[in-house]
Design goal:
Blueprint: H1 3-23, H2 26-32, E1 37-39, E2 42-47, E3 50-55, E4 61-63, H3 72-84, E5 95-97, H4 108-123, H5 127-136, E6 140-141, E7 147-154, E8 157-164, E9 173-179, H6 182-185, H7 188-206
Antiparallel strand pairs: 1-2, 2-3, 3-4, 5-9, 6-7, 7-8, 8-9
Helix pairs in contact: 1-3, 3-7, 4-7, 5-7
Length: 218
């Protein structure tokens, strides 16, 4: 599929989700996702450190920090969170790789190529910049890896990123762990795009271009 066709399909999907949002029970959403704040005509939420607002009048999503517009990946991650969060979903503190999430295995090969391989390639030789990017997201340092931090995709969805830099014998490697509850809060395919967005945000904060075969959603 051509890139412009992909973008068109994503925009259409976002429009469909905006319509779905208008039919959602907003009070129930706020119970399921206490991080949602109703202010200024929005339901506000933070995604990898960036504030967004879902308009209560038409369901569209705005980026609220004045630094551009929300892209399709960000919007779909937010919409699917609202659409798929289960009643009584809760953080389990049970950390697993993507392949061990419920129903994730069919997406494993594409996830590796489009997310963890991109993460490793992008930050190869740039461990210091990666650490600085995590600190900009108020990350919590972890003991494993050359660089290891926990950051929030959403308040309900923390993630753990681990990076081992390249040396004379080995290429750089990266891994990302999810809490096992991730698929109680969102669709398993959205775990892929959420991790992808995390890598992209870290690259932006580090001032580095993405390297590797990313999925390319805008």
């Amino acid at each position: 599929m051509k890139t412009n066709e992909k973008v068109s399909n994503y925009i259409k999907l976002c429009s469909e989700w905006a319509e779905k949002f208008l039919q959602m029970d907003k009070e129930e959403l706020k119970k399921r996702l206490p991080e949602l704040k109703e202010e200024d005509g929005y339901l506000k939420i933070t995604h990898f450190g960036v504030p967004f607002g879902i308009r209560l009048d038409d369901g569209r999503i705005d980026r609220l920090d004045g630094k551009g517009e929300a892209n399709a990946t960000e919007m779909l991650n937010i919409y699917t969170l609202l659409g798929y969060v289960r009643e009584n979903a809760f953080f389990m503190d049970k950390w697993v790789p993507f392949a061990d999430l419920r129903d994730a295995r069919p997406f494993g090969p594409a996830y590796k190529i489009g997310v963890t391989d991109v993460f490793a390639a992008t930050f190869s030789g740039h461990a210091k910049k990666l650490k600085e990017a995590f600190l900009k997201l108020n990350g919590t340092e972890l003991p494993q890896g050359d660089v290891g931090y926990q950051i929030n995709a959403f308040e309900c969805e923390p993630m753990r990123f681990y990076f081992w830099d390249c040396d004379d014998e080995f290429e750089a490697q990266g891994n990302i762990l999810f809490d096992y509850s991730a698929t109680d809060f969102n669709h398993v395919e959205s775990a892929v795009s959420t991790a992808e967005m995390g890598v992209k945000r870290l690259a932006e904060l580090a001032g580095l271009p993405l390297r590797g075969k990313s999925f390319g959603m805008q």
